[in-house]
């Protein structure tokens, strides 16, 4: 059946109603695609659509009454994104039902177009992506659960949340001098859900200069929206700088790093920290920053248990932004299934002067390259929600404040909360702080009556060069908290 799905002369995909679709179909397509030279995606559009600006593109709306599965009493619906603006690539989308794949056809009548969108003749312009809706917040309304739009980007929300950070299918050569490669999803297959189902399945085919890959996403909306991801990568070349389970976010400023920004809001960010649960069972918390120069941090590990870009601050008054609702942005936690071997969680912090730019990236980079002509399989789970899925018993750092103490010192004030701190004898609590290339002094620990937790503060000498810091609370030889790690840079 594969030849009917793959039309190499157009580098596009087609399906007839009698084509079979099975568990290995997209994997077989990816393997076949990787054996051929990469072909650039179809970006052909009428002249006016090539040059749409942001407002023009936003005015193009898919009509909800034309949604896939609307009126069929099914628990999910799909709506589609028009091509234009940044999203010129044609993405082929199919419905899978009863073991058969049927292409979903573009129709001009499925969209409403703003007054400023150029007129065009009815033609097959195709789709740029799609979004999935379900009755997540109330039974009589189908909320947007997730969206796949642009290169290999996708994002999701949990109950009561608004969109924030994004995930990607794969990152390649991020931060390299030669430039990053952005592979893209070329085709999707949406399995028709059964009546009463609590999850739905999305298959995706990714292609880029370095590799092709297949994905199977099982999406379960709820208080935490969960994606079970099965990925198979087929490199065309040896991939030494592949990033697995990549995620991207925005940190403009916060209490640890205002960066001389003059703004009425106390903080602006989609995520405030990177959390890691490493293979040794150690929990790390790394507050994010908006540095003056590019900062790259790598946390070497063996068989990681999870990592994620988190939004821990959930109080509106910490942001004071009525429109953006940063306190409702999701955290994203990645949980590997099985052993992922040696590698490291890599964090990129990129300088930005505007909050519209994603300037944070995190992913897992395997120690060993992904070999050409091979098959590399990974399974993992993405948790979109208010927190990581399994909060540990150790106290967590909830706020990191940093300020000046004279010309050559900085004051660090860290707040913690957690069950491990309740009822603890204050005399037995100790703050353990270390710093590379600096002297630490005036370490103070004290209960915080306003949070019900504790506060750890200390001063650090600064000499105009970056300082690596590490801190935690202990009682005797036992840790009371996760480990706070931070790179202070001038």
UniProtKB/TrEMBL annotation:
SUPFAM superfamilies per the UniProt record, alphabetical: E set domains, Galactose mutarotase-like
Annotated InterPro entries: Gal_mutarotase_sf_dom, GH-type_carb-bd, Glucan_biosyn_MdoG/MdoD, Glucan_biosyn_MdoG_C, Ig-like_fold, Ig_E-set, MdoG_OpgG
GO biological process: beta-glucan biosynthetic process
Metabolic or biological pathway: Glycan metabolism; osmoregulated periplasmic glucan (OPG) biosynthesis
GO molecular function: carbohydrate binding; catalytic activity
Residues in coiled coil: none
Location in or out of the cell: Periplasm
Keywords: Periplasm, Signal
GO CC term, one of those recorded: outer membrane-bounded periplasmic space
Keyword Signal included in the entry's annotation: yes
Taxonomy, superkingdom: Bacteria
Keyword Phosphoprotein attributed: no
Positions of the Glucan biosynthesis periplasmic MdoG C-terminal domain: 21-488
Family statement drawn from the similarity comment of this UniProt entry: Belongs to the OpgD/OpgG family.
Function: Involved in the biosynthesis of osmoregulated periplasmic glucans (OPGs).
HAMAP family cross-referenced by the UniProt entry: MdoG_OpgG
Listed name of the protein: Glucans biosynthesis protein G
Source organism (scientific name): Bradyrhizobium daqingense
């Amino acid at each position: 059946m594969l030849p009917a799905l793959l039309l190499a002369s157009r580098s596009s995909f087609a399906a007839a109603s009698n084509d079979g679709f099975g568990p290995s179909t997209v994997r077989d397509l990816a393997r076949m695609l990787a054996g051929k030279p990469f072909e650039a995606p179809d970006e052909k559009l009428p002249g006016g659509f090539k040059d749409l600006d942001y407002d023009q593109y936003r005015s193009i709306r898919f009509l909800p009454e034309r949604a896939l599965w609307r009126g069929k009493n099914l628990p999910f619906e799909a709506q589609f994104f028009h091509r234009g603006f940044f999203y010129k690539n044609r993405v082929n989308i199919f419905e899978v039902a009863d073991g058969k794949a049927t292409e979903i056809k573009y129709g001009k009548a499925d969209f409403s177009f703003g007054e400023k969108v150029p007129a065009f003749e009815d033609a097959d312009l195709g789709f740029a992506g799609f979004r999935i809706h379900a009755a997540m917040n109330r039974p009589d309304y189908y909320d947007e659960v997730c969206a796949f739009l642009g290169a290999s980007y996708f994002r999701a929300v949990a109950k009561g949340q608004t969109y924030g950070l994004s995930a990607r299918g794969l990152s390649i050569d991020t931060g390299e001098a030669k430039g990053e490669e952005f592979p893209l999803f070329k085709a999707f297959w949406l399995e028709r859900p059964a009546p009463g189902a609590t999850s739905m399945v999305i298959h995706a085919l990714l292609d880029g200069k370095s590799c092709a890959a297949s994905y199977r996403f099982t999406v379960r909306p709820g208080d935490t929206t969960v994606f079970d991801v099965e990925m198979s990568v087929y490199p065309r070349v040896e991939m030494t700088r592949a990033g697995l389970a990549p995620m991207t976010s925005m940190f403009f400023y916060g209490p640890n790093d205002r960066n001389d920004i003059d703004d009425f809001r106390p903080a602006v960010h989609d995520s405030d920290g990177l959390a890691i649960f490493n293979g040794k069972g150690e929990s790390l918390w790394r507050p994010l920053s908006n540095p003056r120069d590019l900062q790259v941090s790598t946390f070497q590990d063996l068989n990681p248990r999870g990592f994620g870009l988190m939004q821990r601050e959930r109080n509106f008054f910490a942001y004071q932004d009525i429109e953006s609702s940063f306190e409702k942005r999701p955290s994203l936690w990645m949980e590997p299934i099985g052993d992922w071997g040696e590698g490291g969680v890599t964090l990129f912090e990129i300088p930005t002067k505007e909050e519209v730019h994603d300037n944070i990236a995190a992913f897992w980079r395997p120690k060993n390259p992904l070999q050409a002509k091979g098959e590399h399989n990974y399974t993992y789970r993405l948790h979109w929600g208010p927190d990581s899925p399994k909060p540990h018993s150790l106290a967590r750092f909830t706020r990191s404040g940093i300020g000046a103490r004279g010309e050559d010192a900085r004051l660090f004030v860290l707040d913690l909360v957690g069950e491990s701190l309740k009822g603890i004898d204050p005399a037995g609590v100790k703050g353990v702080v270390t710093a590379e290339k600096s002297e630490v002094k005036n370490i103070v620990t004290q209960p915080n009556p306003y949070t019900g937790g504790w506060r750890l503060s200390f001063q650090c000498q600064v000499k105009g060069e970056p300082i690596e810091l590490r801190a935690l609370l202990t009682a005797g030889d036992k840790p009371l908290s996760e480990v706070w790690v931070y790179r202070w840079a001038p």
